[in-house]
């Protein structure tokens, strides 16, 4: 599935990760996710994660490799998007109250009308989902 031309520059990566995960693993997962939807690194606008994890060195360094800072997403904002999450992890539901931290973070950071472009994919220590921001209809 490729991104619409109008979606270029509006991709949000939602990230979940274990504390032992390095930035290089997160970066590789984001690059893999972008490739799966036919997007380029320049299309990435936001790297989002749970607010309590946004200060971790691994996510800060991973976001910085794309010229970004991590976007912290509050627990309430994650929970508000749980209805649009398509992947369910019992472990994450128990810890975070959402089926997928990566999917909920991507959707929440991308805005209220966003949609998933890629459901959660995983590496050994991280998960990544992509959401796209809606683009305004410029036709009269």
UniProtKB/TrEMBL annotation:
Q: Which InterPro entries match?
A: CbiG_hydrolase, CobE/GbiG_C, CobE/GbiG_C_sf
The record's annotation in Pfam families points to:
CbiG_C (PF01890)
Q: Which residues form the signal peptide?
A: none
Coiled coil (UniProt feature): none
Q: Specify the superkingdom.
A: Bacteria
**Which stretches make up the CobE/GbiG C-terminal domain?**
11-131
What is this protein identified as? Cobalamin biosynthesis protein
Q: Which GO terms describe its biological process?
A: cobalamin biosynthetic process
């Amino acid at each position: 599935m490729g991104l619409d031309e109008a979606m270029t520059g509006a991709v949000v990566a939602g990230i979940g990760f274990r504390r032992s995960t390095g930035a290089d693993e997160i970066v590789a997962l984001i690059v893999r996710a972008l490739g799966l939807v036919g997007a380029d690194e320049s299309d990435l606008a936001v790297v989002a994660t749970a607010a309590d994890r946004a200060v971790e060195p691994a996510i800060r360094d991973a976001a910085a490799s794309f010229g970004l800072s991590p976007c912290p997403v509050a627990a309430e904002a994650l929970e508000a998007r749980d209805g649009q999450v398509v992947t369910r992890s019992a472990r994450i539901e128990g810890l975070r109250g959402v089926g997928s931290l990566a999917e909920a973070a991507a959707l929440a950071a991308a805005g209220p009308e966003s949609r998933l472009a890629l459901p959660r994919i995983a590496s050994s220590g991280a998960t990544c989902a992509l959401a796209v921001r809606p683009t305004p209809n410029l036709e009269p």
